[in-house]
Amino acid sequence: MKKYFTLLVALYTASASVAQIDPTLLRRTPKDTGGVQMNMDAVYNRPFLQLGKLPVALGGYVEANYQYLKTNGISEGHQFQMRRMTLFVSSSIYKRIKFLSEIEFEDGAKEISIEFASVDFELSPLLNFRGGVIMNPIGAFNQNHDGPKWEFIDRPISATQMLPATWSNVGFGVFGKKYSKDWVYAYEAYFTNGFDDKIIDNKTGKTFLPASKENPDRFEESFNGSPLFTGKVAVKNRKIGELGLSYMGGVYNKYQEDGLVIDKKRRVNVVAVDFNTTLPKMNTYINGEWAWVHVDVPDTYTEQFGRKQQGGFVDIVQPVLKKPMMGFENAMLNLAVRLEYVDWNKGTFKSTGGNISDDVYAIVPAISWRPTSQTVIRLNYRRNQQQDILGNPPATTAGFQFGFSTYF
Q1: Structurally, how many domains does the chain consist of?
Q2: What mean pLDDT is reported for the chain?
Q3: Count of CB atoms within 10 A of residue 1's CB?
Q4: Does residue 7 carry a pLDDT above 90?
Q5: Over the stretch 111-125, which tens digit does the pLDDT of each residue have?
Q6: Which of 88, 173, 311, 350 measures 20 to 30 Å from 329, CA to CA?
Q7: How far apart (Å, rounded) are the C-alpha atoms in residues 144 and 137?
Q8: How far does the signal peptide extend, from start to end residue (predicted)?
């Protein structure tokens, strides 16, 4: 906790210093709107505040909410939550050499983590080198997760409870893009530290990839000495939308100790596809992602540990009103809905041949108001139906959520 306290004191001191600076020297660095923006550009496509000609720029976002949910009629009552505050620090070290860091404070600083801290060397549009703490580009949400960009308070179930949302590791890799009229082609490829055996040895009692996020040692050493590979290719057309295909895979178990082989190499492999588009005339925005997970689970584990998982989500956002409102010149009112599904254990029981359940369905209608493009106030109604492994009648969770998220 001492280092976190020191960090907070430093941030407070810096903010106090900025408050004493002539405000005319401060300028808002707009989000990058040049060219065709893709999910891989989300890390830099954020608003920053810069002082004069200093090479360092600051930014961030915050989100908080209220919720009242019931599960089979039982509720924990009225809950107020400070979900997260995230700070960005970027610097143009030299032309074509950039640094960006992303530090997240979750649940009132109960969890503090570095989600991104890397240096980019821009060699050419098709060949750029990145090293440091890298956000693994599996799917689209893992990279493009900032709260103000979404009409929904909760992050997708598939991205947080099947895939490990904001999953990052230390490593190196390359990325690039090529433009051709209305088309953009892009790729990313990284080798990083990876998962550990917590994905099948955790308190949830099931195969659970996000459990590896609890291991802070992954930022200084590999659990088993085997690198995790993450790669993605994407294509976007200005009029059609963006399609991405990504893969992440590697050995997750400790298969040797001091040169002695203790187990075979067991892999985890993830394939994801994502797509987003805006329909003409109505400006309906559609964004979806689907992923498949395969884990080599030891035969000594029971069937409650899934060897195959799959799931995803689709968001449909419909602008219904865009006009000056309450002193905001470009305010917008949206209607939206999210459909979600996750199957944590795809397959059948060996003994009976019956289906293994352990899945969840969810629907989330939403109303959102954006006084500016960088701020959203949102009202959600969430309804989940979750089955246990035996397929008993599902537990139903339903209720309202209200909150906001904004860049600053």
Answers
A1: 1
A2: 91
A3: 7
A4: no
A5: 889 999 999 999 999
A6: 88
A7: 9
A8: 1-21
Cut 0.70: pTM above it: yes
| Rounded Cα–Cα distance for residues 406 and 225 (Å) | 40
* Cα distance between residue 109 and residue 103, in whole Å: 11
CA–CA gap between residue 201 and residue 278 (Å, rounded): 42
**Looking at this protein, which amino acid is placed at residue 229?**
F
Cβ atoms within 10 Å, residue 289:
26
Structure tokens at 304: 């409650």
What single string gives the DSSP state of each residue in 351-390? TT-PBP--EEEEEEEEEEEEEETTEEEEEEEEEEEE--TT
What is the phi/psi pair of residue 186, to 5°?
Answer: -140, 160
- Report which of residues 329 and 54 the model is more confident about: 329
The boundaries of the domain holding residue 82 are 2-407
CA distance 138 to 289: 10
Sequence-ordered list of residues with C-beta below 8 angstroms from that of 99, at least 6 positions apart, any chain: 90, 91, 93, 117, 118, 119, 120
The residue to which tokens 């891989």 are assigned: 40
Amino acid at 262: I
Residues 381-393, mean pLDDT to the nearest whole number: 95
Query: What amino acid is encoded at 381 in this protein?
Result: Y
C-alpha angle with apex 158: 152 to 160, nearest 5 degrees? Answer: 75
Cα separation, 152 vs 6, whole angstroms: 34
What CATH number has the domain bearing residue 22?
2.40.160.10
